[in-house]
Specification:
Shape: globular
CATH topology of the largest domain: Tetracycline Repressor, domain 2
Strand content: under 5%
Number of helices: 8
Helix content: 55-70%
Largest sheet: none
CATH architecture of the largest domain: Orthogonal Bundle
Number of domains: 2
Oligomer: single chain
Length: 210
Amino acid sequence: MAVITMDETLPAEPGRRERKRQQLQDHLAQTAWALFEADGFEAVTMERIADAADISKVTLYKHFPVKEAFLPYLFHQELAAAWPAIRGQLAAVPPGRPRLERFFALQAEWCERRRPYLLAYVRQRLTDKRDPAKAGEGRSGMDRMFAEMIAEGQEAGLFRRDQTPALLAHYLQFAHLAAMLRWLTQPGVALADALQQMLDLICDGMGSPR
């Protein structure tokens, strides 16, 4: 079974028009982020973002229809940029469950720093009405990261091989979302603990402990 890697899914080099679009979106997103960090996410309006970016509201709404749409754009870029370094840290631990545990420990540290934004981020992701087949650029890439780690565990004989890495990653994604929502909505829940409990259930199942 071939190991899936993030490199296999990287987009082709963009053309001039696409580069200009990306540069504008980067400018808008960084402008919005500076305002969010300075004044708080709830206090910032789309009008303020347009003024600070020195563009018309029509142009702003063309690229980002709501302010919540900035969060996936920013966070997914951050994750993609950090992935090579994360990969290096994951390579230092054995494949399979230890590698997933290390990934979730790193993610918990990042999420704690971004907590004020994450419930709005999740809501935006869940209400994205685009056709999933046409919304590739809006995806976080987490599904491919999970699939890569699962495939490595399968190659090492540590995970079942009668299901594809993509399918197992699909179920892991939704279990991961449940753990995140539990942390974000229930007082007193520690994210690291919620993620560990989730991984225990995924890896060990719902059978009685022996």
